[in-house]
Amino acid sequence: MTQPSDGPAATGVPTCFRHPDRETWIRCQRCEKSICPDCMRDAAVGFQCPDCVKEASKGSRQNRALYGGERSADPRLTTFVLMGISAVVWLTISATGGGSSRLAALLPLTPSGRCDLVDGSGRYYPGVVDERSCAMLPGTSWHAGVADGAWWQMVTNMFTHVDLWHVALNMMALFIFGPALERIMGRVRFLAVYFVGGLAASVTVFWLSNPDSGTLGASGALYAVLGALIVTFKKARLDTQWLMQNLALGVLITVVGWRYISWQGHLGGLLGGMAAAAIIAYAPKSQRSVVQWAGLTLVAAVLLGLAVVRVGTLA
The whole model's pTM is what? Predict the structure, then answer.
């Protein structure tokens, strides 16, 4: 009567670390684990196991985006998050009164404070009415602006929408352009373009629009993404026809609806996005990351400085 065998390992024969039932005499050149033919990966010298190949690829150029950023596993993810934030803000505003919601006064960009009527009509007293006078008027509420200290509006306006058509159109455009730019730049640089461009849009609105006006929507940041795509496509010598067609369409819509559409935000976002993309795309390879982040930081600092100067003129 014979005893049952415990397999190849019991006889002292090495087996694959991933497939213990397979005998093998081949070892990984890096970690020296035994590997079977199915687990062998060609290397510069000999063979490596899948784990070592995966580890080595983390720092390789294959895992880097075109301009030095880390390649996104799913280039749509950041866009979905941005869309989700805008959707949550819109739903919250809709659930709390729509245009008459308190959030509809707190989140949009208003250069200077104004005295609003609380009837939801969107009407307000002209700038000659200050906060103290507004408190004495019946049926009114003071709407603070950036010049009054509401600096958050420089960012929150990018995620604020009141009308369904507005949020739907902007999110559709973000879904089209966002993943394309993240695929080129990587997640972190894509976000840098989005927010630097959005900040440029806010500063342009701050300087060129009526101090009593309110501006909201992701359009400025979307124009920044479009401008960045144009710059990166030009740098890579790719066909920009479809981008220029979208830009022309956007300009036409802005011109036709100038009474209701912030051309200041569109212009500022486009120029800001192009400037940010140029810094990222044309940074020298030898010191790419240092130049990119120093340049983007400088642009953001200049924009904030311009906003501070504008506050001084409105005070």
Answer: 0.78
